Amino acid sequence: MIRLNRSAHAIRPATVADCDELSEIHVDSFSRGWSDAEFESLLVQPGTHALIAHRRGVFRRESAAGFILYRMVADEAEVLTIAVARASRRRGVGRMLLEEALRHAYREGAERIYLEVEDTNRAAIALYRRAEFEETGRRAGYYSGGRTTPGSALVMLRQLR
């Protein structure tokens, strides 16, 4: 596995101006990708946050390596989606984004954070388990995405306090 060179990546809050990059990465990562307009409608909601990681280029502009979108309500947080650009996968970008989101949720007073992940997404499940998320439930038929047999979601939880 190629290790992430943290100095080669920068994480910053994503804004509505980043919706095209978020959408591009999401469409390439999931069978039902979200549009620019869907990201914009989420980012303007109170309590919704996004972080974007960029690869720093020496001779070219920075390019998006991945992002995480999460929301906070009272003392709970929920990861809505996380995606990494194909060229940046298996380099620790997803882990770096998740860790930063967990730190932010903790600083903002969240006691726990939830997420749902397709039960066949082994790489994501391994990432979440390494980050101390535990399976708390299952939702059969949660992911349809135009398939003949909808996929199930694992509901996972991490206690922050």
Would you mind describing this structure in some detail?
By secondary structure, the chain is of the alpha+beta class. The protein has one domain (6-159): Aminopeptidase. It has helices at 19-29, 36-43, 93-107, 122-130, and strands at residues 9-13, 48-55, 63-73, 76-84, 112-118, 134-143, 151-159. Strand 4 (76-84), helix 3 and strand 5 form a beta-alpha-beta unit. The longest helix is centred in the middle third of the chain and has 15 residues, at 93-107. The radius of gyration is 15 Å and the shape is globular. The chain starts with 8 loop residues before the first strand and ends with a strand. The model has no long low-confidence stretch (mean pLDDT 89).
CATH class: Alpha Beta
**Main sheet specs:** 7 strands, mixed
User: β content, as a range?
Assistant: 35-45%
N-to-C order of helices and strands: EHHEEEHEHEE
What can be said about this structure in brief?
With 161 residues, this protein is of the alpha+beta class. It is built from four helices and seven strands; from the N terminus they run βααβββαβαββ. It has one domain (6-159): Gcn5-related N-acetyltransferase (GNAT) (Aminopeptidase, 3-Layer(aba) Sandwich), CATH 3.40.630.
Give me the secondary-structure topology.
Blueprint lengths: L8 E5 L5 H11 L6 H8 L4 E8 L7 E11 L2 E9 L8 H15 L4 E7 L3 H9 L3 E10 L7 E9 L2
Parallel strand pairs: 4-5
Antiparallel strand pairs: 1-2, 2-3, 3-4, 5-7, 6-7
